[in-house]
Amino acid sequence: MLRPPALLLSLILLSIGSFILAFSVGSFQLSVAQFVALLDGSENEITRTIIWELRAPRAYIAFITGGLLSLAGVLMQVLLRNPLADPYILGVSGGASVAALLLMFFGLSGSLVTGGAFIGALVSILLVFSLSHGKGNWNPSRLLLTGVVIAAGWGAMINFILSISPDKPLRGMLFWLMGDISNISPGVSGLLALLAGLLICFALARQLNILSRGDLQASALGIAVKPLRISLFLIASALTAFAVVQAGSVGFVGLIVPHMLRLISGSDHRLLIPASVLLGGSLLVISDTLARTIIAPQQLPVGVITAFIGVPFFLFLLNKNFGRQVTS
Exposed (0-12), middle (13-18) or buried (19+): which is 325, by Cβ within 10 Å? Predict the structure, then answer.
């Protein structure tokens, strides 16, 4: 396992490298000299426009979205005590997707779709929370089952909307469902959500470490388990909602990044929380760079690239870790 300082330094360097890659690679290749000139402001106007108005906003949105999804994934895996839990498992993205697709179906776009997606995510959060809480005990199994059923309902509605949609908006709908950063205007709401979530989660890191060992031990050590679980659900759902609004439904990042870091560095959330944000953001920036360049001038949905990158690497890492456990 990597020591915490070495891991965080490596992830910071990876984050910087992912931005340099995003700025440099594309139909217009940026040389080292041009990149230096860009930083000191001596590069020509065309280059500055390509970098600061086209590539930089996409890299910014991708990093924030990846960080939001990874942080939400960390919380979901503790909340549900399941390493396979991800930010979308409770149907938050489904509610956002239904609202966004309905607006696209009626010919709307831009900020209206973004606002509609956020409202849909909030509706889904309220549905899952109210139905899972009910009059009985609030527990991870009930929350998970409620979320899965709500997500299945949203999935049926998504399929219905797609099946009756005309051909013209259908491509845009499909790209949004698979993750699309190309038409999103950068703003500060996602960044503020990420910073707030990071600070709150880091403040709760000690309680997350205890809660991950089980409710009985957490209660014995003075943790108010039920309020903590409700708080984690609301925080994780809000982070997921902001991520979906930023870039649509980008799969895999919130599942794979926290799990990968647990295999590499252990389960101390004081390290896992900032490391997940850095790795998730870097992974999505690199994935988006590949999505817009790998078959240029055509672009791929970024969710396709995250799966292509993450699946084989995760399987390799999991197999390597399992083999180490067997032989030890």
Answer: exposed
Q: Which residue bears the tokens 């930010």?
A: 87
Domains and CATH numbers, the chain: 4-327 (1.10.3470.10)
Q: What is the rounded (10 degree) CA torsion for 162, 165, 167, 171?
A: -40
CB hemisphere CA count around 275 (13 angstroms): 28
Distance CA 328, CA 314 (A): 21
Question: What pLDDT tens digit does each residue of the chain (328 aa) get?
Answer: 668 888 999 999 999 999 989 988 876 777 666 666 666 666 677 777 778 788 889 999 999 999 999 999 999 888 888 777 788 888 888 898 899 889 888 888 777 887 888 898 889 888 888 888 766 666 777 888 888 899 999 999 999 999 998 888 888 888 888 887 876 777 888 899 999 999 999 999 999 999 888 878 888 888 888 888 888 888 988 898 888 888 888 878 988 899 889 888 888 899 999 999 999 999 999 999 998 888 877 888 888 888 888 778 777 766 765 444 444 4
Q: Is the pTM of this model over 0.85?
A: yes
User: What amino acid is encoded at 268 in this protein?
Assistant: D
Nearest to 161 by CA among 240, 95, 68, 248: 95
Give burial (CB, 10 Å; 0-12/13-18/19+) of 157. Answer: middle
- Whose CA is closest to 299, among 288, 310, 308? 288
Distances (CA, A) of 276 to 35, 88, 255, 305: 28, 17, 11, 19
Residue with tokens 């845009």: 172
